[in-house]
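User: Good morning. I'm curious how adenosine-5'-diphosphate would be positioned relative to this chain. Could you predict the structure with it bound?
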Amino acid sequence: MLWRLCANIVHRTRPRLAKEFSTFVSDPRWPGWQAVIGIEVHAQIRSRAKLFSPSSNSQDISPNAHVSLFDAAFPGTLPVLNRRCVDLAVRTALALGCDIHQRSSFDRKHYFYADLPSGYQITQKYAPLARNGRVSVDDTGRVVRIEQIQLEQDTAKSTKSPGAEFWRIDLNRAGAGLMEIVSLPDMRTPEEAGAYVRSLQAVLRAVGASDGKMEQGSLRCDVNVSINREGEPFGTRCEIKNLNSVKFLMSAILSEVQRHISLLSLGRSIAQETRGFDEERVETYTLRSKEDAPDYRYMPDPNLPPLILTEGYIKQIAKSMPELPHAIRSRLQSQYGISARDTDILMSIESGTDVGFDGEPSRGGAVSYFEQVAKHCNPKVAINWRVPCVLITHELVGQLVFRDEPFSANPVTVTAMRDVLSLLKNKTLTGTSAKTLIRHILNTKTTKPVAVLVQELSLQASSPESLEKLCQNAIDALPQESEAVRKGNQRVLMKLVGRVMKHSRGTANAKDAAATLKQMLS
Ligand code: ADP
Ligand code: MG
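Assistant: Good morning! Here's the predicted structure, ligand included:
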């Protein structure tokens, strides 16, 4: 049902999208020019075993520990497709609203390199798993269309230490499952390209298909860039290979756009080529020109029959789909009335624990924490979610980030946070004291109940009597200011309030203090 629904949405939105993408988008950084960007993402599938062999997919072990005879391309060995990889790719395709092909097939892409023992990579050139998807880019509200998703094998890892005589080959990664996710050239700025990759990462993690870590190589991007003037067709593109962080991806695009503009402005033309990115010099350089492009001699793999997916199988997967980031984002805003900015902060805090194997999504980030706090909260506290949300996003998350600790190390339990919120609501704690309390728990990692901590740290909000006493002290200590307030100078009042707050060590409420002072001085 769901996959039909997804497919329908794609069909219905297509004419509107086509119009949207034909609109010329310039940028103040390059007036009169439009930058056009398309991205090919290679995402490692988080399956326990490799794509066509039973050897383990785990990477954190010594080199060449997980290599089957097939991975090492021993003659006579045959590929056996790992069903879990297909499940995860289908999940991804559903999450991206693709048309899933009930019949797809595998092809060989030949090239000769030490990281490829068999001399060919098995991929899906002619009939990929899925086509026509879309990614909603969170920051911009725009959509980037997905051209296709295909299954393919990863290569081995080759490394060479500086000055070493030999390359070292680690076959652990050889034959691991990859999804190649190809976008249409729908992005128009480096920032949009960065936001697209982040949004795609979030979807991959939500469905448990990949942990999508660029820095660790489980998500790798090749970026295609061209520029054109209004009313003209898209320009000649250059492909920048193997960008391994969103930051480098954006700076590579920026420098490539500028290179194209300076060439065209000099009346020269752009040669279609494959380029690398020099992170130190922040510029791209030629890897190979179009003429040198290898001839991969694609051919259907005779050892693998076509992959047939029944409608029942696809429906089954559709039924098990978790809530997707886009849906979570709008639900949080409508259900709790929290701002888009706070929603983004909550959603950007991962649990710090990895996506599990075989499709277990990563759990327990700030969103789930917030919702657990919300679920257990006294309904009276839950009237306005902005306060709890701000306390969690700004105080708790802010402090954890400041301390460079993952969210999984958060010592403020759901119960503790709920208690703090109840005390805030019934005015036993002021906002300042609530922050003090949270920092105390973060510093000491104490597991004592919140009520005990409030006593121990004397954090109870001032009673009306003690507030009056604090105000009287302030009036006595600042006679000139008090006189000015009496004569109607309201601005000086804040100085008195400031003193009350300071001497109360945060247990006084500024509004109450101002009211009490005013009353006493009138
Ligand atoms: P190849 O077979 O060379 O990889 P593809 O047709 O698969 O070529 O396209 C690769 C990528 O290039 C896609 O992500 C696509 O969006 C992008 N692309 C195509 N045309 C342009 C263009 N004019 N400017 C920028 N990117 C482009
Ligand atoms: Mg391609």
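The chain has a mean pLDDT of 88. The pocket of adenosine-5'-diphosphate (ligand 1) is lined by residues 36-40, 182-185, 224-226, 234, 237 (CB under 6 Å).
Let me know if you'd like a different ligand tried.
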